């Protein structure tokens, strides 16, 4: 096992090198090089999967954090502005297929025209600031693979800048489609600069957080001018999408008074404090058109914030939440009329029976703009397991049409996530997103399930590990009880032991059927039944123990 590199940071402090069993490949699409992760199987086959990890998993890449990633998009064609707008939305509406759209079509395995028409209709967005040429374009929309976002960033207890870059590299290694830098505290500008110059995925921010730093944490001291200048500062650096809590209106704030958990959104609470202190309408709302002009110049995508999202099961789907959503719909129309791309942020904490209503209303009120939700947590009773409580809601809401899921880590509500928490959060959300892709019939989703199932049925253990979302942990769990190399080809694992492996019994049944020339479905069924009956008799004879004592693996092949 000398090839295990995926968890070892290199000298630069970054985790580089291929994921176990995979190599980085590029598909040549005209002058575009579209990355895929090729998983190599022991039977000579391979499977190419969507790859978010950028050059970091390319064994041949020469990574230098100080220099940043190659500015790939700089050499791509930039179409002429359409009526003054150089945005993917403007181009899509004018019938132009951009290089970004072409790249995305190849990545997703869909037609270019689907990409263009969904962007033109506002049902999908491509967050790609002109000033972030290092990024590999991706699309967020319900007709495409469900995406996940990982939040990184320090709070008052700060880590070093290199640590923040490593968090981004680490999150995208495991499959984060975008990352949001939610840093607060010192060095916010420099941290973001390093992340952007080294990020192969779109980067999002919440500019109100930095604006608040500039007024020493006093929300009432915020002004439109301070906020605007912060947005421009971040736009110049290349931030691809920004959360703007412009739907928190003065008159909605009283609607939260009787809630169990009030306003839980950071940005929402900052804006509510400002509105109440000045008794004026939010400057984000009153200056929204000016904001659109800035966003249009760089092609920044709005992520209209859910400042009034429910923070508990009790508050789900209440008046405050849906009043804000209606305003987000109004703002969506304003942004789109200026050729600015928009997605809509959603909850939060919602019990399962109230999830579908969220998607239905969002699509109706916001004219089909992509929905981007934070979970939602399907119950409040499991702190320390909120990656799971939220992945339940996330899978359901994604199946119902949500385009991107903001991950939740096991530390949610408890503390700042560490490296392991980030990985667990990302993998958990990949599961939710992929489960939804399968349910929605995304063209390529099932390929990987089928490949893994075949490997499992044929006892190709190494292939089973490598096809999984987290090969390292799968291998580690297997090796905990059967560490010897021959166990990697054994026709059982320690869960059922050699005698009671159902996969092996069915393989035996198939072999028996073949040898005896039994070919019809009925024959096979009868043979299966006989096989099962004989195994059941064997089970009874053996003393009806479900857990059999472990037997040491003695040699290669089938030891039983
Ligand atoms: C996603 C959906 N709803 C909220 N989010 C994310 O939560 C958003 O994208 C950003 O990362 C974070 C903003 O949190 P506050 O400021 O709304 O608490
Ligand atoms: Fe919460």
TrEMBL record:
What this protein catalyses is: 5-amino-1-(5-phospho-beta-D-ribosyl)imidazole + S-adenosyl-L-methionine = 4-amino-2-methyl-5-(phosphooxymethyl)pyrimidine + CO + 5'-deoxyadenosine + formate + L-methionine + 3 H(+)
Query: According to the UniProt entry, which residue ranges have a biased composition of type Polar residues?
Result: 1-15
Binding-site residues for Zn(2+), renumbered to this chain: 349, 413
Looking up Gene3D superfamilies in the UniProt record yields: 6.10.250.620, Radical SAM ThiC family, central domain (3.20.20.540)
Keyword S-adenosyl-L-methionine: yes or no? yes
Cofactor details (free text):
Binds 1 [4Fe-4S] cluster per subunit. The cluster is coordinated with 3 cysteines and an exchangeable S-adenosyl-L-methionine.
Question: For substrate, which residues are the binding ones?
Answer: 151, 180, 209, 245, 265-267, 306-309, 345, 372
What is the protein's given name? Answer: Phosphomethylpyrimidine synthase
Q: Which organism is it from?
A: Gordonia paraffinivorans NBRC 108238
